[in-house]
Amino acid sequence: FRAPAPNVNLTTWLYQLWSSLLLDGNAYGLITETGVNGFPVTVEILDPSSVTWSYSEGEWTTKINDRQVDRWPNGRLWHMPMFVMPGMPMGMSPISSAKQAIGSGISAEQFGAQFFNSGGNPNAIIYSDTELTAEQAQGIKGAFTNATQGNREPAIMGSGLKYERVQISPDESQFLDSQRFTVEQIARIYGIPPELVGAAASGSSVTYANREQRAADWLSFGLMPYLIPIEDALSTLVPRAQRVRFNVNGLLRSDLQTRYAAHAVGITAGFLTVDEARAYEDLPPLNDAADQIVAPDENVV
Length: 301
Fold this sequence. Notes:
alpha+beta, three-stranded antiparallel sheet, 8 strands
């Protein structure tokens, strides 16, 4: 996993994996090299669109760019799905599983653009004290539009005409509320706290006191539903006695005083050693730290 694919580091490899899962619901890897134990040495993440599925005689087969490739452990294609429906081997992305909610958000955006640009309602009304023919009304409208278009000069009204602007509040149109709901809904689909994408819910606040708890909630309810399946899928690439696990301690890392107090409790209770506590702080073991101290020159008096 330090060098999972040629010319690709682990960070980029995991980013490709996550992008495939979040956008397509499936991650595919082509095993390009195996070790002496038969397990993969390098796995290249594929574009999900290059893999197709077909069902024939009660069996699912896969193709990469129209060439059939068996799936791991019988072949070179490693597959990891998310949100799998019963009877289906491939997964669905969060977007696919919630496309109706996103579709309503797009409809609201299109309606808002049409509402404010083309106008479902007039932006002003010109009253006349006398009856006007259609030609006269059109002429007054054209004259007023030509006089005010492209500038902010005051308009001069003739005798018997009164201008009144139509005021439409955002609350009444519901446009702004609909836009905020779209961002919050997408954040909800992916299990992300809205404030992390700049869409905090109305009336909510994130303070220093509850930030650590928010990170723990995001890990439990937003990330773990993805991390656990990824751990299971990656564990199939290593010998059975081994297992892949993500280290989430960095996400839950609290302030310095709280961490040190927790280390002290663990060391005192005996279920944590000093070196293990130092490892949590990205520090070398005590023996290694002592070795890094430069000894004085024996010839110097």
